[in-house]
What we know:
Blueprint: H1 4-25, H2 36-43, E1 47-53, E2 59-62, H3 69-73, E3 93-100, H4 106-125, H5 141-152, H6 163-171, H7 174-185, E4 210-214, E5 230-234
Parallel strand pairs: 4-5
Antiparallel strand pairs: 1-2, 1-3, 3-4
Helix pairs in contact: 4-7
Amino acid sequence: MMSSGSRSRVTQWSARLHSCIRQLHAGAGGQLGPSAGSLGRQSHGEKIWVFSHRRSEQTIYSLEDKLDGFHALKQLPFNGKKTKPAKLRKDYWAPMAMIQFPQGQGEVGRSVYQKLRELKHLHEVAWPKDFRYKRPQEFTEADKKKIAEEKEKGRDYKPVRTKAERGIALNAQKKNAIADMATVLGGHGSGNKVAASPASHDDQPELVHVSISWANDEDKNYAESWSTNVSHELLNKPVYNKLDREGEREGESGA
């Protein structure tokens, strides 16, 4: 059994330990300051990374500067055979853009992140009826010949995409993603926190300033226009995602 003297020493050390912990967390005024966890939650969402596939133009949004192979794959839908990889390869994926919000505006960033993902999902599942038809740049020589033949007969012929071609077209979300960024960062949409609440009903909402760093600054031209609260610059130091490639075989198919 522990003696009374031993119990007394344990109690003293416990009291000193609690005192040290309180001093570590105390603010300048002697009050408990914000914990590291609360500060982390406030800054979470201040940066949104937009990753793009070099070949398929698939896109993935991330709140980290590297992709998580497990969670990132959930953003890629199955659009047909060989349209969704079993794992991500870092030689195919790279940051297309990084969206930066002011310090302390992580809540706004998380709101934008959610809306961008929702719009991406809509593009993938709610495509228009004319999506089944090929675009002129997709016409093959056989398609062009068939169009000319039908035109001579006075008929309008539109080449139809095959199931595989439709899956490839659905995967290519890069241009849609950039257009969505311009829309959401412009404060459009119900509940968009980029648009701060106006002082009165007659005032226009003030838009939070946002900076976008591009890996290729020509990509921003895919959007028709950008609101004045958005500034653009180059992503000088692109951070490539660090994916675990252990066990990946040479020549493994996938994206």
